[in-house]
Amino acid sequence: MSKKLIDFVKKNFEDEVIDSHSRLGNDTVILKRDRLPEVIEKLRDDDKTQLNMLRAITCVDYLQRLPRFEVVYVLYSIEKKHMLTLRVVVEEEDCTVPSIEGLYGAAHWMEREVWDMYGVEFVGHTDLRRVLLYEEFEGHPLRKDYAKQASQPRVDLLMRERDSVEEFNVFVKQKPSEGSRDA
């Protein structure tokens, strides 16, 4: 789209834009986090942009930089076939971002994954809990300062683990199928 989306964001939310660039066909806008849902809603609903698909939400940890984190949103327009990347800077001391779960249903799981792996809290999310790791897991493993050899609390299993081979033998092999000679 060659900077038209960047210009649209700058025109409508000039005070929220920190930086922008268009490299190799990728339009990117770096934003402050406070009005993020408003910016995304405008991009989704405006006839000029129609960014009606949320492709991804992820996070980048810049350990030696301030602000440390950037939450990355990739938006796409199915009708207009253009894409925009929004990057929101987040301080380590106040590691929160407004949730966009109400704007895109897919954001529900994506925000949970970012919280699980990086510890970025999405304010207003309806069910912010771990999605990839168990609830007792301590820390956020994709942070660059996470100790790789850190031991985690043991969790007692509530029931015996499933063994798919054993289930196959019990439910399939030992039970003759209808129409077989053994039936």
Termini Cα gap:
66 Å
> What is the CATH H-level superfamily?
NADH:ubiquinone oxidoreductase Nqo5 subunit
Quickly name the level 1 CATH class: Alpha Beta
- Gyration radius from CA atoms, angstroms: 23 Å
CATH third-tier fold name: Beta Polymerase, domain 2
Biggest sheet character:
5 strands, mixed
How many strands? 7
The pLDDT mean sits at 88
What string gives the helices and strands in order? HEEHEEEEHEH
CATH architecture: 2-Layer Sandwich
Strand content: 15-25%
- Identify low-pLDDT runs: none
Number of helices: 4
Mass-distribution shape: globular
Question: Strands of the largest sheet, in order across it?
Answer: 1-2-5-4-3
SS-based class: alpha/beta
Tally of structural domains: 1
Fraction in helix: 10-25%
Give a brief description.
This protein has 183 residues and is an alpha/beta fold.
